[in-house]
Amino acid sequence: MRYLLAYVRLQLLELLRLPSFLIPMATFPVLLYLTVGLRSGGPPGQTLFNYAAFAMLGAAMFQFGVGIAATRNDPWNLYLLSLPASPRQRIFAQLLAGVVFAVLFASPFAVIGMLFGGFQGIPPTALGLASAALVTGALVHGCLGLALGYWLPSRGALPIANLIYFPLSFLGALFGPVDFGPWQPLHTWSPTGAWSDLIAAALHGSVAIPALLILAGYLLLCSAIAVLGYRRVQQTVYR
């Protein structure tokens, strides 16, 4: 536990010293919500939480997917490998630090919700459930980001992450209500769609079990791919 916490602290300090990464990642979803989300015509609470999910998804795609792929060969990461932490501790610490930052990126939406009435009419218990659904989805998509980070080539990481980020956001209807018609299963079975459905049910005070099971499946799948990717990198690059 001591090594895990020390590693999380290292990860947090490393990211806090990158304001050029943090500020755009934190402000873009907020600006998008203020200019587009508020006028989308969807239920205010659902729209607000979906844009918070969009902010968290960005943290997973770019902090993990792009960040790990771009820096896994640099001297700092080689130094980190020399520290007394197991691969499991290292991956879990990365995930934990990522969730902390994802929550940080989503926190401006709490202020915006209070200012613009996004929480109006939603009982406190439903808000608590929706917040838990938000963090659950952040964990799943954090594992997705880790999997991408350990498998994407360093130079292709950014364009590939963009190709995944925006379609996933659209499939999850994170920008506002979307009528998918006959393509509805694509929404239902996508990780962001299940995340959005879980949040929607939570805002009505219930738990969407099918969405939760779909997210659990993605969590297992992405975790396994991330571990395999980490071992591949460890064997082919560091040895």
UniProtKB/TrEMBL annotation:
Native source organism of the sequence = Arthrobacter russicus
Q: Which domain of life is it from?
A: Bacteria
This protein is called ABC-2 type transport system permease protein
Q: Which UniProt keywords apply?
A: Membrane, Transmembrane, Transmembrane helix
Could you list the residue ranges that cross the membrane?
12-36, 48-70, 91-116, 128-152, 159-178, 198-230
